[in-house]
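Risk register update: the risk of archive-format incompatibility is retired. Evidence:
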Amino acid sequence: MKIGILVHGRHLQAVGWPKLAWGEPEKGNLGSLPLMVYTALTEGLENIAVVVFGTGASEKDGLKEAEYTKKYLVDHMNDLSQFACIKEHEGFQSHLALARLSKLCDGIVTETVSTNTVQEIANTAKIFQAHGCTKVIQITCGSHEPRCARLRSEVKKQGLIPRGQIWYSIGDDMTFADSSISDVVIVEPPHRGDDPLLGAVHLPHRLVPRMFKIDLGLRQHFLSEFDELLTEYNV
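Archived output:
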């Protein structure tokens, strides 16, 4: 089985980008970069056909997002031993294994055409197909994983992920902007037979997305009014 790994990009101007990408080794928290390495070691380096980094949505120091992220990993290869799970991994012990890991990271493909997650998934699916991958591991920020999984299903429904590719999603230990994973809200359509909203006219999963279509200049005003309305309902 040939395995492909996608590390989703994150905007290079995101608050605390290095910490988001790398993690907190002193706490044992892996960012997406060491998680990619740990995943590759666990799956077996010899089974990894290709690793892809996205995207082209942001730039820093003259490099696209994917290129900058790859450079950051290559520049910090010697720091991977900060993470106990990597340092103690049997695949990280021999000089041969380290050389193979270094070669894998040097060969990371940077996908710099996409500017959003949907494009990133669709474009990388083609790369994985070209490398004969039948298993794809999708790695992203912990608080971004639910959205990435949802968009992957959307791309698959559009027929842009080959039928022979089975995708698996893994969230790292980090979250955006000092939030927690509990701050991520998922609004599903009502589906249980005992759900009182089943068949209702006004449904949360249809109303919530509309909030994000409000002009940025008015959105904060709307949210202020919405907050007051919720207070009236004692929530």
